[in-house]
Amino acid sequence: MENILQAIGIENYIFLSVMLFCIGAFGVLYRRNAIIMFMSIEIMLNAVNLLLVAFSTLHQDAEGQVFVFFSMAVAAAEVAVGLAILVSIFRNTGSIDIDNLKNLKG
Amino acid sequence: MNTLIAISILGVLTLIAEIFNGRKLIVPVAVVGLLGILGYTISPYNAYDFFFNNMMVVDKFSVAFSSLFIVITILLILLSHEFYKDVPSTISDFVAIKIFLLAGAVAMVSFGNLAMFFLGIEILSIALYVLAASKRLDLRSNEAGMKYFLMGCFASGIILFGITLVYGSTGTFDTIAIYQISHSTTFPLWFYIGLVMLLIGMLFKIAAVPFHFWAPDVYEGAPGLTTATMSTFAKIVAMAALFKLITILLPSKLYELDLTIVVVAALSMLVGNIMALRQNNVKRMFAFSGISHAGFMLSTLLISNNSANVLFYYATAYAVAGLAFFAVVLYVTKNKKHETIDAFNGLGKTHPLLALVMTASLLSMAGIPILSGFFAKFFLLNELVQANWLVLVIIAIIASIISVGYYFKIILAMYTKSSEEELPSVPMIYAVVAVLGLIINIGIGLAPSFIYDLLG
């Protein structure tokens, strides 16, 4: 056996990634603290990165690993904007609880 | 390809202009630069080129849609000069963000590789998060930005997962290679799961039912010009990207996918129009109207021949009417906290020109003849009948009839009620943009073949 991927099996990588992705998704849906929601989004994106690297090894193709760099850079930019929005919310309301944001409805 | 580079350079230039105190020049330079880029984009019209190992593909589809996006961006930048008059120190940021938005949009319609598609959609989304929350002292704008950010990131995660599964099953990000593989061999089930996740993510972005719940809140809370950007620009960009994605990833018609799209489109038309009836806020009403138009545009995916033309014509008609609508709304609701329909009372007497433009764009969106919106719906329904989706045609007609109800609420307010308060004089540029929108609207309504035959 040369390849660790063959020993573990690609299915197990997919199961792990899907599980992490679902943990992230449920975190976004159920947690009310903005910072924890951001962390959950990061977990979702990192689950995808893990799967990309696994597929990249499966296909013996470097493209997938290069894509991981793109997605990491984009995730960093996204969270920077998100934290900036959060700071301006904190300045206006004095808290980071998402439940305070209930002005818009109808 | 060079279009994308030129747009990015122009964006950086507008940021640098701030350093050299060229604030007054920013809007004219940006508009002239974009006009130059527009000419440059159109000139190799029949080209079919690949750039950077097939990262970018320039074909008729991408050239036509890129030109449309550039025209819309020019109109939006013209509006931004007046809209940000109270905060002159930040005008370069807003203009630069709008130009970067355009760069993302161009990448989204001319991608040849799923990496480029992902980068394009992220550039577009991140720029829009910033714009939505840009009124930072206003809690409603903050709330809109936060909601849009959370929903957008969630959708981006789903899109990314979809791209990964497509990569896992085909072993490449290149769209031409994927096209060949999906034609020839059988591949793991992941491909279809990935396709569905991509579809879900894009439906989030274009705000189609059942992924529409963020749209009304975000459109209401965001600053007026941002709402105009999101509802006209971002929606047709996402729709064009979804169209291109589906045609590439799914060469043969799949009945299950068609059925999904029929259900989503029918629900979007009905829910959007019915919910819009009970709205009193103009921006919120336009959000629901936009949801129903997303349903109409989605149904172009069902058509087998001429579908790109129908989508392009519908997108043009919708965007032009929306821009003219927002040019009037920005003026009328300028110093008001809430954008209720009462604000339009008596506009027909005090400002007949703006009232005329408003009426025309509303009638265009409802689908009344000689305006382009009618022909957009006519072409779409005509092709849908030929594709044997009569159910959807009937639902679309019912939805259009419902939509007349709330569009006339604004028209009646303008012409039958009288206003109590004096409106300030009309800024020149708003009137210019509104009239331009009206002229384009009637122009492509009178000569539909000019736009309709572009994509061959």
From TrEMBL, chain A:
<comment type="similarity">
    <text>Belongs to the complex I subunit 4L family.</text>
</comment>
<feature type="transmembrane region" description="Helical">
    <location>
        <begin position="67"/>
        <end position="90"/>
    </location>
</feature>
<keyword id="KW-0560">Oxidoreductase</keyword>
<feature type="transmembrane region" description="Helical">
    <location>
        <begin position="12"/>
        <end position="30"/>
    </location>
</feature>
<dbReference type="Pfam" id="PF00420">
    <property type="entry name" value="Oxidored_q2"/>
</dbReference>
<keyword id="KW-1133">Transmembrane helix</keyword>
<dbReference type="InterPro" id="IPR039428">
    <property type="entry name" value="NUOK/Mnh_C1-like"/>
</dbReference>
<dbReference type="GO" id="GO:0016491">
    <property type="term" value="F:oxidoreductase activity"/>
</dbReference>
<feature type="transmembrane region" description="Helical">
    <location>
        <begin position="35"/>
        <end position="55"/>
    </location>
</feature>
<keyword id="KW-0874">Quinone</keyword>
<keyword id="KW-1003">Cell membrane</keyword>
<keyword id="KW-0520">NAD</keyword>
<dbReference type="InterPro" id="IPR001133">
    <property type="entry name" value="NADH_UbQ_OxRdtase_chain4L/K"/>
</dbReference>
<keyword id="KW-1278">Translocase</keyword>
<comment type="function">
    <text>NDH-1 shuttles electrons from NADH, via FMN and iron-sulfur (Fe-S) centers, to quinones in the respiratory chain. The immediate electron acceptor for the enzyme in this species is believed to be a menaquinone. Couples the redox reaction to proton translocation (for every two electrons transferred, four hydrogen ions are translocated across the cytoplasmic membrane), and thus conserves the redox energy in a proton gradient.</text>
</comment>
<keyword id="KW-0472">Membrane</keyword>
<keyword id="KW-0813">Transport</keyword>
<protein>
    <recommendedName>
        <fullName>NADH-quinone oxidoreductase subunit K</fullName>
        <ecNumber>7.1.1.-</ecNumber>
    </recommendedName>
</protein>
<keyword id="KW-0812">Transmembrane</keyword>
<comment type="subunit">
    <text>NDH-1 is composed of 14 different subunits. Subunits NuoA, H, J, K, L, M, N constitute the membrane sector of the complex.</text>
</comment>
From TrEMBL, chain B:
<feature type="transmembrane region" description="Helical">
    <location>
        <begin position="310"/>
        <end position="332"/>
    </location>
</feature>
<feature type="transmembrane region" description="Helical">
    <location>
        <begin position="257"/>
        <end position="278"/>
    </location>
</feature>
<feature type="transmembrane region" description="Helical">
    <location>
        <begin position="429"/>
        <end position="452"/>
    </location>
</feature>
<keyword id="KW-0812">Transmembrane</keyword>
<feature type="transmembrane region" description="Helical">
    <location>
        <begin position="60"/>
        <end position="79"/>
    </location>
</feature>
<keyword id="KW-0472">Membrane</keyword>
<keyword id="KW-0813">Transport</keyword>
<dbReference type="InterPro" id="IPR001750">
    <property type="entry name" value="ND/Mrp_TM"/>
</dbReference>
<keyword id="KW-1278">Translocase</keyword>
<dbReference type="InterPro" id="IPR010096">
    <property type="entry name" value="NADH-Q_OxRdtase_suN/2"/>
</dbReference>
<feature type="domain" description="NADH:quinone oxidoreductase/Mrp antiporter transmembrane">
    <location>
        <begin position="113"/>
        <end position="403"/>
    </location>
</feature>
<keyword id="KW-1003">Cell membrane</keyword>
<comment type="function">
    <text>NDH-1 shuttles electrons from NADH, via FMN and iron-sulfur (Fe-S) centers, to quinones in the respiratory chain. The immediate electron acceptor for the enzyme in this species is believed to be a menaquinone. Couples the redox reaction to proton translocation (for every two electrons transferred, four hydrogen ions are translocated across the cytoplasmic membrane), and thus conserves the redox energy in a proton gradient.</text>
</comment>
<dbReference type="Pfam" id="PF00361">
    <property type="entry name" value="Proton_antipo_M"/>
</dbReference>
<feature type="transmembrane region" description="Helical">
    <location>
        <begin position="27"/>
        <end position="48"/>
    </location>
</feature>
<feature type="transmembrane region" description="Helical">
    <location>
        <begin position="387"/>
        <end position="408"/>
    </location>
</feature>
<keyword id="KW-0520">NAD</keyword>
<keyword id="KW-0874">Quinone</keyword>
<keyword id="KW-1133">Transmembrane helix</keyword>
<comment type="subunit">
    <text>NDH-1 is composed of 14 different subunits. Subunits NuoA, H, J, K, L, M, N constitute the membrane sector of the complex.</text>
</comment>
<feature type="transmembrane region" description="Helical">
    <location>
        <begin position="99"/>
        <end position="132"/>
    </location>
</feature>
<feature type="transmembrane region" description="Helical">
    <location>
        <begin position="189"/>
        <end position="211"/>
    </location>
</feature>
